[in-house]
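User: Some background: our group keeps a shared notebook of sequences we're curious about, and every so often someone picks one and asks for a predicted structure to add to the entry. Today it's my turn. The entry only has the sequence so far, pasted here. Could you supply the structure so I can complete it?
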Amino acid sequence: LRLKTIIMSVTSYKQLLLKSRPSGNLKDSDFELTETTKAELEDGQVFVKNILASIDPTQRIWASDGPQYMEELQLNTVMRAFTTGVVVESKHADYSVGDVVVGPGMVQEYFVGIPGQTVQGKLEPKPSSVEEIATFMGPLSVVIGLTAYVGLEKILAPDDKSIVLVSAAAGAVGSMVAQLAKLRGATVIGVAGSDAKVAWLRDELKVDHAFNYKTDDLMAKFKEVAPDGITHYFDNTAGPITEAFMMNSAIGGKVCVCGAIAEYNAEQPSGIKSWGMIITRRLSIQGLLVLDHIPKMGEFLEFAVPKVKSGEIKYKVDIREGIENYVATVNELFTGGNKGKLLLKIGDLPA
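Assistant: Of course. Here's the predicted structure to add to the notebook entry:
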């Protein structure tokens, strides 16, 4: 009865349009919050109420017109985001009202979804709370969990003699990478942007060495704790942390490049200044785009679900509220204001 009431009452809904290409941090003026009319469903479609949107650094790239790995988002279209929502109306044989689904639902309250395209599947077993959904969007998601798993287990593959450096180590991906490296017996160095995050890495995640890139001399610290060089680096940031790694890398070191958040808002990215160290230390560097590794999702979940449920893998989620707060929420990623996986709550779960 409650879902039927929702369907009957929804005639329009809010969506956030990209209006201009941002310069530096995202600004409210780059977007427009508008109201759109609900369209009639066609056969094979579902109508989805968005509950949570994933907030990720890549959204800054999506808003730009620079080179990127997905089709360029056009101006005056709904801002891209991956979401989890609830089917409130269905004209698709495989989807029922009440199913919890995932996909690129965009920054909007509702959307007309096409299974296999904008609806990529159901969450099963079906979560019954926003908190359970948040777990699926954090350590057990493609964007976070599978990224960490592929980068650490498949690309870097350290052992108990390795020294693994993780930048943005208190973030959603970085914290999982650090824990996976510890599970393999490696010595782990984590870098974060506040004393509180450094303390969490040391006290909760049991990282061997943790540093604050804003206050610590990373060149000196890395040399102190890894005098023979850092063997593996999971790079979420680029910038000064990467420079410090290059100068303190071990011969034959391996690098997995997952992100470059220090560069995304820069008008002129700084690039790698110590490029010659790649030759001197014979480094192997590989980029990671998780969309190339979706077939490994089943393998990852078999590995990770028991560890997350038992608490062996720890995680944090940071849920902000309100579609109108999208810009401020995204910018938290670039100031370090978030604590764990950042999500934006767009709607409530139907009763």
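Suggested note for the entry: The mean pLDDT is 95. The radius of gyration is 21 Å.
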